[in-house]
Amino acid sequence: MAKAGGGIIWATAEDLARNRPVVLSLYRQILRALNSPALPLGHAARLAKKAECRAVFIFGAEERSLHNIRDLLEAARHTVGLLNRGRLP
């Protein structure tokens, strides 16, 4: 754990455990939204978007910076909002 200006910048095991249900929920929401018939995607494009989503979440799973984790969660929430409106991110 490193400190900068009195604040902790690296995630602890407790931080990661606390974020796990949120991350899994967002991941599932994005995958469900990608299956929506409202999105103008063919089968191959839908599979490509799902693979892209998996790659982002796998990459994000290795992140240990609290700031970057917060940014990734915010981006996932924004993506869910766009997908639920029938728009592609």
UniProtKB/TrEMBL annotation:
Tell me which domain of life the UniProt entry assigns to the organism this sequence originates from: Eukaryota
Q: Which residues form the LYR motif containing domain?
A: 15-83
Q: Which InterPro entries does UniProt cross-reference here? A: LYRM_2_plant
Report the protein name in the record.
LYR motif containing domain-containing protein
> What is the originating organism of this protein?
Oryza brachyantha
Q: Which gene encodes it?
A: LOC102700961
